[in-house]
Amino acid sequence: MRYFDDLTEGESFDLGEYTLTPEGVVSFASQWDPQPFHLEESGAEGSVFDGLVASGLHTLCIGGKLLVEGFMNDVANMGGRGMSDIRWHRPVAPDETLSGRVTVAEKDESTRPDRGDVSFDLAVYGSGGEPVLTTTFRNIVRRRE
Hints:
Layout: E1 12-19, H1 22-32, H2 36-39, H3 41-44, H4 56-70, E2 77-88, E3 97-109, E4 115-125, E5 131-142
Antiparallel strand pairs: 1-3, 2-5, 3-4, 4-5
């Protein structure tokens, strides 16, 4: 388990991979972002996209899943304080494999002795290694006793 005291600003961790499927893209969009270019190939015709693309919200959720499973489950996380600077750098296609990397961006002492605040920069990368999404999470992390 990593505590506030164990985290060092600037250190980074790889988060693993997640492969989207066309069925998963459509299923997510059907429930959470039912726009035509997320629901079917024909819905993307005439749009700025060159075919079916995943919802940006889906990409964000995948980034969150990678973050939690690949890192936060091993951190003495007490909860989130917010998210900022969400950027979608390009659309994500079905059948694309995404990977993630988290960097400890900033640590701040708390007025409470059992915890501190930590900002984590999350980057989600496409199959070619270029960023498709970046954002910053701020969390409360328990200190060692």
